[in-house]
Amino acid sequence: MGKRIFLGNKLYTIIGVMSKLGSIAGIDEDNSAFISVESASAQYGITSVARIDVSANSPELIPIVIRQINQTLLKRLTTDDFSIQTADSLSSTISSITNMLSLALGGIAAISLLVGGIGVANIMLVSVTERTKEIGLRKALGAKRNDILKQFLIEAVMLSVTGGIVGIILGMGVSIIIAIVLVSTVTPWSVILAFGFSVAIGVIFGMAPAIRASKLSPIDALRYE
């Protein structure tokens, strides 16, 4: 109190200190300074009021305060000229937007998983085709159907897990870059979830090629050209 600080190129005297409010809608309210409308108009050329902050003494009084604000503003304005928002309604709006973004990102992730799974299945089918003689030779030497199934299933899982690890590393790198501007963290459960999905994709989409390989007849496989 009483200290003098510069806002822009003008010197102001501190006549009051607000209590801490924290961050609201991503805006740090504790990093704000309030000056009179006349001073703002003279220094920054502001000709209209964009926002008025009002505080109620208790949560129970909020509906009454909203009604009084509405009655006061309607004396000079129309309902199209202003809107009244409470902290709860603002949080609700932000939550709905966040939920929509989460659904959109979830849809993109699902499509990415499907495309990645199809890629794994195609690679494994090509691998089975190119190694048909090898499969026939292994079966002729005593390899059982389950042995061939496990071999190609493990290869499919390793392929998808490798891609998952690369994705996790890239995701962590992007998160570190984003953290320079916005709040961004990588939680352990998200890494575990991503790794689990990689394993699941390898098992699900690698199953069909592995089954196909295990069903090959040794004679037909050895004669394959």
Structural class: mainly alpha
Counting DSSP E segments of at least 2 residues, the number of strands comes to 4
Shape descriptor reads elongated
Specify the number of helices.
7
Poorly predicted regions? none
Radius of gyration: 32 Å
Spatial separation of the terminal alpha carbons: 90 Å
| Mean pLDDT reading | 84
The main pleated sheet reads as: 2 strands, antiparallel
In terms of DSSP E residues, the strand content is 5-15%
List the main descriptive attributes of the protein structure presented here:
225 residues, mainly alpha, 2 domains, two-stranded antiparallel sheet, 7 helices, 62% helix, 5% strand
Layout of SSEs?
Layout: E1 4-7, E2 10-13, E3 23-24, E4 27-28, H1 37-44, H2 62-73, H3 87-130, H4 132-140, H5 145-178, H6 188-214, H7 218-222
Antiparallel strand pairs: 1-2, 3-4
Describe it.
By secondary structure, the chain is mainly alpha-helical. The protein has two domains: 1-50, no CATH class; 101-222, no CATH class. It is built from seven helices and four strands, in the order ββββααααααα. It has helices spanning 37-44, 62-73, 87-130, 132-140, 145-178, 188-214, 218-222; strands at residues 4-7, 10-13, 23-24, 27-28. The strands form two sheets. Strands 1-2 form a two-stranded antiparallel sheet. α3 (87-130) packs parallel to α6 and α5 packs antiparallel against α6.
